[in-house]
Amino acid sequence: YPRHRALETQLSEFNLTAIEAMLGSYTKVLFVRDPFQRLISTFMQGMGSSSSFSSFVQDILDNRQDNTSVSWKPLVSLCWPCLVQYDYVVMFGFLRQELGHLLQRAGLPADNLLPEFTDTQVQWTYSWLSEQMFSELSLQQKKQLAHFYRWDLSAFPFSNSFLSD
């Protein structure tokens, strides 16, 4: 949208007419990841101050109304998929396939632009990590997490998520 190119400007700073015009002129791509995997990734990167995954999750659950970190905030509250008509939704774990398709649709040579992805290895690693981390949580924590991410689990096909059960 040519008139508003400021990098620091957030969409919410514009009026409804300008927002509709901007969203109508862009190709909108949404990248999504299983919320439980997002929690694991955040914990593994040391972004939480807790010593164990269980206490990290409990800190989030205890303070969820106050948490503003995008690292674990539910996706639907960040990107509003029910209000914004995204042109593409790209799932973590299928990046090479989906980004290749997206680049082809844009008329760009996908083979030359894509980095090497190791989706299969990453999926296996997160599957193993998820099992380990999930086993650390109490039944109450599991239920609370599933409730906290209920809208993400409803909006996106995270069928293999540990939180889906």
From TrEMBL:
<keyword id="KW-0735">Signal-anchor</keyword>
<dbReference type="GO" id="GO:0050655">
    <property type="term" value="P:dermatan sulfate proteoglycan metabolic process"/>
</dbReference>
<keyword id="KW-0119">Carbohydrate metabolism</keyword>
<keyword id="KW-0472">Membrane</keyword>
<dbReference type="GO" id="GO:0008146">
    <property type="term" value="F:sulfotransferase activity"/>
</dbReference>
<dbReference type="Pfam" id="PF03567">
    <property type="entry name" value="Sulfotransfer_2"/>
</dbReference>
<keyword id="KW-0333">Golgi apparatus</keyword>
<dbReference type="InterPro" id="IPR005331">
    <property type="entry name" value="Sulfotransferase"/>
</dbReference>
<dbReference type="InterPro" id="IPR018011">
    <property type="entry name" value="Carb_sulfotrans_8-10"/>
</dbReference>
<dbReference type="GO" id="GO:0000139">
    <property type="term" value="C:Golgi membrane"/>
</dbReference>
<keyword id="KW-0808">Transferase</keyword>
<dbReference type="GO" id="GO:0016051">
    <property type="term" value="P:carbohydrate biosynthetic process"/>
</dbReference>
<keyword id="KW-1133">Transmembrane helix</keyword>
<keyword id="KW-0812">Transmembrane</keyword>
<comment type="similarity">
    <text>Belongs to the sulfotransferase 2 family.</text>
</comment>
<keyword id="KW-0325">Glycoprotein</keyword>
<protein>
    <recommendedName>
        <fullName>Carbohydrate sulfotransferase</fullName>
        <ecNumber>2.8.2.-</ecNumber>
    </recommendedName>
</protein>
